[in-house]
């Protein structure tokens, strides 16, 4: 574990800017912040640190759950230099496309709601057809721990 990240997590446990701004239940604002943090070119100055940690954690969780083929070791070897970070493309909350690293990451962000209309399966089909040859890494992200339907 990273000592600096643990310290940041402790601080965030005490202070939640989403609560202060009265946007704790607004999915669009959560996605905007996450998109900014995931972009290695973002003004945050973290380069690919947050992106790499986020993808490593997601890959490890997917392996635990027996889904996906991406591992944390794969993420460690990725360049991530040419990654494209987009929001609301194909109605997908956040889409990460890294042709050089041969993966596409679909992030469905849910705040106080669950999956509907079989959207995760639909988004996965879209990613597989639009980004053929790129290994998909689907992520269902929720602060409430709600499990996806599919």
Overall shape: globular
Q: Reading side by side through the largest sheet, how are the strands ordered?
A: 1-2-3-4
> What's the order of the H and E elements?
HHHHHEEEHE
Biggest sheet architecture: 4 strands, mixed
| CA radius of gyration | 15 Å
- The number of domains is 1
Which tags fit this structure?
alpha+beta; four-stranded mixed sheet; 150 residues; globular
Care to describe what's here?
- The chain is α+β, with helices and mostly antiparallel strands.
- The protein has six helices and four strands.
- The longest helix is centred in the middle third of the chain and has 17 residues.
- It is globular and about 40 Å long.
- The model has no long low-confidence stretch (mean pLDDT about 85).
Describe how the helices and strands are arranged.
Layout: H1 3-14, H2 17-20, H3 27-38, H4 49-65, H5 72-77, E1 84-89, E2 92-98, E3 103-109, H6 119-130, E4 135-141
Parallel strand pairs: 3-4
Antiparallel strand pairs: 1-2, 2-3
Question: In summary, what is this structure?
Answer:
This protein is of the alpha+beta class. The chain is 42% helix and 18% strand.
């Amino acid at each position: 574990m990273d000592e600096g990240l643990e310290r940041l997590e402790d601080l965030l446990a005490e202070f939640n800017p989403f609560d202060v701004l009265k946007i704790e239940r607004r999915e669009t604002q959560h996605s905007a912040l996450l998109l900014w943090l995931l972009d290695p070119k973002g003004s945050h100055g973290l380069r690919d640190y947050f992106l790499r940690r986020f993808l490593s954690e997601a890959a490890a969780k997917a392996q635990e759950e027996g889904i996906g083929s991406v591992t944390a070791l794969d993420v460690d070897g990725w360049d991530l230099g040419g990654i494209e970070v987009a929001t609301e493309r194909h109605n997908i909350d956040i889409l990460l496309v890294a042709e050089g690293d041969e993966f596409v990451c679909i992030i469905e962000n849910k705040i106080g709601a669950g999956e509907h209309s079989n959207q995760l399966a639909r988004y996965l089909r879209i990613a597989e057809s639009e980004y053929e040859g790129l290994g998909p890494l689907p992520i269902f992200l929720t602060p409430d721990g709600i499990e996806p339907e599919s």
